[in-house]
Design a protein that fits this description.
Helix 1 crosses helix 9 (316-328), helix 4 packs across helix 5 and helix 7 runs parallel beside helix 11 (349-365). The chain has helices at 42-54, 70-73, 79-90, 106-125, 156-166, 184-190, 237-255, 281-298, 316-328, 339-344, 349-365; strands spanning 3-6, 19-20, 23-24, 61-63, 93-95, 101-103, 131-134, 173-177, 196-203, 226-231, 259-264, 303-307. The chain has one domain (3-26, 33-365): Arginase, Chain A, CATH 3.40.800.20. The chain is built from 11 helices and 12 strands. It is an alpha/beta fold. 38% of the residues lie in helices and 14% in strands. The two termini are 36 Å apart. The longest helix has 20 residues, at 106-125. Strand 2 (19-20) and strand 3 (23-24) form a beta hairpin. The strands form 3 sheets. Strands 4-1-7-12-11-8-9-10 form an 8-stranded parallel sheet, with helices on both faces. Strands 2-3 form a two-stranded antiparallel ribbon. The radius of gyration is 19 Å and the shape is globular. It binds zinc ion (ZN). Zinc ion binds at residues 179-181, 265, 267, 308-309. Zinc ion is lined by residues 179-181, 265, 267, 308-309.
Amino acid sequence: MGTGFFWDERTFWHAGGDYAFTLPLGGLVQPQAAGGLPESPETKRRLRNLIEVTGLAAELDMRTADPAKTEDLLRVHPQSYLTKFKEMSDAGGGELGYHAPFGQGGYEIAQLSAGLSIAAVNAVSSGTLDNAYALSRPPGHHCLPDLPNGFCLLANIAIAVEAAQAKGLARRVVILDWDVHHGNGSEAIYYDRDDVLTISLHQDGNYPLDTGGLSDRGRGAGVGFNLNLPLPAGSGHAAYLHAMERVVLPQIEAFDPDIIIVACGYDAACSDPLSSMLATAETFAAMTRAIKEIAAKTCEGKFVLVHEGGYSEVYVPFCGHAVLEVMADAVASAPDPMKKGFDNRQPNARIVSFQKEYINEMAESIGV
Ligand code: ZN
C-alpha cells in the first residue's frame, strides 16, 4: 500500500516540432535559443529530480509501467487514428492535429504515457496502492478520440478509466480537471454517459477558445454529468478553494464514485506563461487534501492524479512536491521558494469576495 509514483525517463524524450512558444516558426516568429513548445520535458524531469533530492522518492512506491496495449487504446481511439499516428511516428513524426507535434517514435512514447496512467488507476482501484500519481507525458486531457490537440496525443485518463471498467475494477468514476485549460477531450469522450462525471475548473477564454462553457452539461443519458466552471482571469488561492467547496466536493459526494481521477495541471499557478491565474503550491496541496478527504468519505480513499499541463520549469516541481506530500503524508518537504511573492500577488479581500459571489452565481444558474 502507500502512494505510487509512476514515471519513466523515456517519456521525457518525447519531442515536439518547430515552435517558438506556442507559435509555429515562420514569418516574423524568430526561433528561440532554447526553443520549442512550452510542453517541455524539464517541468516533469525537474519534479522527478526534486522528489529524489528531498528524500520524498524514498517515501513513495516508485514504479514504471508497460506501454498501453492496442486493445486498451481501441476502447477510446478508432483504429484509423492509431494507424495514421503509428505510420507518421515510424516515418519521423510530424504534426498530427492542432499543436500536437511529435518526433520519431512518438507513438511508442505516447503508449507508455497512457500505460503509466493505466497502471496507476489499476493499482489504486484494485487496492494494491492507497493512491497514486502518474507522471504521464505527453499529456492527454485535450485529446479527442480522433483529434489530438493542445500537446495531447492519446487520451491517457479515458484510456485508464476504460481499462479499469473493462476489468471490473471500477464502475462509477469522477474525472476532476484542475488544469487551467478546459478538459475538452475528457468532456467529449464522456459527454453522453452517466457513469463518468467530468468536472473542469479552467480559466474562462483560455485554450480551447470554443469549449468549456458553463451551459455544457452533457447530452442524452449524460445530461448533468458534465460540469464546467470557467473561472475569471485573476482567480487565486481563495477562488480555487471556494470552487472546490461550493461546487466540486458536493458534486463528487452526490455522485458517489468508485474512484476519483484528477487531471492535474499546474498551469493555474502564478508564474505560468500560458495562463493568467494566481494559484500557488499551497493551492494545489489544499485541493489535493480536499480530494483525499472526499475520497476517504466516498470511495475508500481511492484517488489518482495524472499529470497534465504546467509550464513554469522552476515552479511546477514545487507544486508537484506539495501535492505528493499530501498524498503520502510525507516527512520530506520542499518549502515553496516563491511563497512570499506569490502570496503577495493574491487578490485583495473585496475582489476575493466578488470572485466567490461570481462562482456562487455560476453554480446557481446551472442548478448545482
Ligand atoms: Zn493546461
